């Protein structure tokens, strides 16, 4: 039986929600096409995730445990994935689109001779390959793509599918792995501190734009986010001026998010920003310019000064939450 | 240190786009240097200004795309390589990567730099494909570069939860984010000087390829294009801050039911 192999990304001792979304979708695709669902996880302690992967329906689980996977490095990740691909010989290799998988997808395609469809919004396994929809032109346009051949590699934008459980019992294989000597040296990992809620997994995002001018404005954002239990996002403008960390950037260069509730605060709504957030369920925009493009996509648009609105809004939400 | 930057000519995102029967048509007069590649050119220029060396650029495309090579030369690159393919229609990342791999096998360099993605397709594959084919160490999504002692390139790359500092031995490849810098606008002097700078033309045959072999390396195809379904604008509220907040609270609690 041919297989779909899902590469599972972990962060801080947890499987990323976006990986579970991809796994859930691949389970449906495997059933439809009479294929086997396999998952591979690379981590310092990969075996710890085997149970959860069975909860989501993986029939074969490959765990590759090695301390090298404590931090991201493309060479050992590529080496390990090539080893598993060789072993499983899947028709489709799928993963969530993250900075980690973006770093290796092209290399995997080149080394395996497989076809790559990156950052898709949805995909279907077909008789001879994969058919997928990808946002292009700063997400103004969708392109319908196909890939055929013995192996197709797909990465999926977060929030494209729901993560749903379907428990099964899997064959779990602990794979022996010896990292080759590789040339790159990891000197330092600089973590963004203070990210209390992971942006790409958050159900509520409070995003700041150039309308936030100073530390005082930043505090208004942080207070609102804290009251809501939300992750803090940012436009490029306020990452560039150093008010917000680069990990908070949402958009074409930054992350793609699709929360239940998105606050665009002092953000004009440039296409390169909306490319990363237009799939949010409810969008609240606060902007003093009534003609700002963000209002064309906002569920609720507030025309006014954010410095006046935010303190009141945070207070009202606090009251509502404690009621 | 010698940098060779792979650059691409792409449509201006603000140019009007039209979709007819699934085909995308755009204004071919509004083609620009891919923003991410511009950042790669800028960073290579800054590093060679500080440490010595040369910046060359290489572009695959029709004759018209030479204007984008001129743009990079006007920014300060010393030489352009034009790999002439008049009809790039249907070529995917794998095909572009196979051409560039053949180019670098014949024209070795110390650092290959590319944009982290092209702003039209956002694929972000070509860089790591070329590195893997040439067996070069690489890093994707660089937000900072510096040269350490002449034998390695130190790359700060933006990861999912933070940044990683990597030292790559030379030769190596790096893909650049536009968060790295703000590319310079060419000066009049730069534009004048660019006209005298050399642009070497390479045919696919010069690189040991042909259009047929390149088309064979294509792995994916675009079947059709469609408009992104537009979100509908919802309610726009005006008034003083108190009114705005109380209306919003009401909507979030009772209509959207998200609070
Ligand atoms: C290749 C490329 C990739 C890019 N990638 C990204 C990306 O990933 N993410 C991204 O965000 N951008 C990206 N950009 C940049 C993008 O084009 C915009 O420049 C950027 O999104 C603008 O950010 P902004 O909305 O915060 O700022 P602005 O466009 O300056 O908007 C600020 C808004 O704040 C409002 N405002 C000001 N003061 C107040 C106040 N007191 N109260 C209420 N409202 C106020 C103003 O009315 C205005 O609408 C990219 C650009 C390029 C070329």
H/E topology pattern of chain B: EEEEEHEHEHEHEEEEHEHEEH
Q: How do the strands of the widest beta sheet of chain A line up side by side? A: 7-11-6-1-4-5-12
Helix content of chain B: 25-40%
**Beta content of chain A:** 25-35%
Number of helices of chain A: 9
- Largest inter-chain interface? A-B, 97 and 82 residues
Morphology of chain B:
globular
Radius of gyration of chain A: 21 Å
**Largest sheet composition of chain B:** 9 strands, mixed
Look at the structure and name the CATH superfamily of the largest domain in chain A: HUPs
What can you see in these coordinates?
The complex is a heterodimer of chains A (323) and B (259). Chain A is α/β, with parallel strands linked by helices and 323 residues long. Chain A folds into two domains: 3-174, 3-Layer(aba) Sandwich (Rossmann fold); 199-322, 3-Layer(aba) Sandwich (Rossmann fold), CATH 3.40.50. Helix content of chain A is 28%, strand content 30%. Chain A has nine helices and 18 strands. In chain A, the strands form four sheets. Chain A has a seven-stranded parallel beta sheet, sandwiched between helices. A five-stranded parallel beta sheet of chain A has the order 15-14-16-17-18. With 259 residues, chain B is α/β, with parallel strands linked by helices. The relative contact order of chain B is 0.17. In chain B, the strands form three sheets. Chain B has a nine-stranded mixed beta sheet with strand order 11-10-9-12-8-1-6-7-13, sandwiched between helices. In chain B, strands 2-5 form a two-stranded antiparallel sheet. In chain B, strands 3-4 form a two-stranded antiparallel sheet. In chain B, a hairpin with a 2-residue loop joins strand 3 and strand 4 (23-26). The model of chain B has no long low-confidence stretch (mean pLDDT 96). Chain B is globular and about 65 Å long. Chain B has helices at residues 35-51, 66-75, 93-106, 126-134, 188-194, 211-216, 241-255, and strands at 2-7, 9-11, 17-20, 23-26, 31-33, 54-61, 79-84, 111-115, 138-148, 152-158, 162-169, 172-176, 199-203, 220-227, 235-237. At the A-B interface, helix 3, helix 4, helix 5, strand 7 and strand 9 of A face helix 3, helix 4, strand 9, strand 10 and strand 11 of B. Strand 10 of chain A pairs antiparallel with strand 14 (220-227) of chain B.
